[in-house]
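Kindly review these tokens for lecture notes.

. . .
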Amino acid sequence: FDEAAVITGIICITNDITDVVVARKKMEAQAKMVEELLLTAPAFICTLTGPTHIYSLVNDRYQTLFGNRTIKGKPIMEALPELEGQGFDTILDKVYKSGEPFVGIDFPIMLAKNEGVEPELCYFNFSYQAIYNEDKIISGILVFGYEVTEQVLSRNKNLETEQIHSKELEEKVIQRTQELSTANALLKSQNLEIEKRAGELSTANRELLAFNYISSHDLQEPLRKIQTFASLIKEKEADLLSPKGQEYFDRMQLSANRMQALIEDLLTYSRTNVADRNFVKTNLNEVAAEVIEELSELIKETKAVIEIDVMCEVEIIPFQMRQLLNNLLTNAIKFSKKDVVPSVTITANTGDVSDFKNEIAKLTTAKLVKTKQYCRIVVSDNGIGFNPIYRDKIFEVFQRLHIKEDYPGTGIGLAIVKKIVQNHNGVITADSKPNEGATFNFYLPIEIN
């Protein structure tokens, strides 16, 4: 045999083995680094492995929730028996089987914080994210979150105080309204308007105080922290993460972004019902032109064709009307057919009830005033359309006719459109058939008074 060839072969094999060992050590170092990062994170983090959700990784922040209780290596329902009947087994099973993440905001949990201690009511913001193995099969669940018990209790106390003050204010408004009604019997129509506005203010204040506070602060703060920490880990520790680890953080950020979009849409919806409404006589062509300019990038990207006929001059709240047309045009482009250029047409004409008699039968939830002149605006598209049985349901909050993976959104856009039309004392209808496009008709009074 050739001694030199044998020696050369041995050297090559040795080098290959060395390369494998070095690569394995590098992967082990990366895994250890990620594990240490998770274990020392300021938020509580743990991983639950397998269909019985066994604690496999528990960081220090998570362990402090349970004092000296031993949880690592145990199924969650065995380690924390007080969770029985609170629905966590069902939630975890769903995430493990479907891969769909779960986010809990101000979530109430009865929890024992040490061995032999009675469970107490606590509140948490947290998320459950599915963990996938190399074969893209779910192998466990990543838990990430914070305890917010003190914040929730403090907010509830503040809300209770605000509700007491709000009730006192409402009683004073009612009392004052009654006095005005008695003293100004000859001005009945004016007093009716005062009562209506006082009722709107009272209701809006109660709803918006609670909703806007929670949406603007408590709901968005934990989302911002989740997004911040995920971004920091990806930016500063990217070289230490495996491709699978980076994929997990991408999914975490995507879920947080969807929740943030939902919160922002809910805030927009609540702010459309304002008591201070400044109506301005405006040509709707100007509003439509502004909206098309705002959507220019989307129109260019999708090659959408927008055609606008001569529009009416109407008394409107300008920023709300821009929001309305923006939502309708965005919807028309978003729900377009695949491989078909989106086409949207906006037309308008004026008239009274007799001029729109063919449409009156479709106004199931509101009526036109016979003595008023209206501007009828028609927005039509060539998109995927919808079943006509849903013509009223699509204007309700959170109503989605298509899955979010195919057509993203929060299910609030058309609810905002309807509320804006109502703010203008108008009505709106929708007509469509599957794969035959959709047509929205909304009727706005030429003059509000």
Observations:
- DSSP finds 13 helices and twelve strands in the chain.
- Confidence is low (pLDDT under 50) at residues 27-31, 402-407.
- The longest strand covers residues 120-132.
- The CA atoms of residues 207 and 318 lie 24 Å apart.
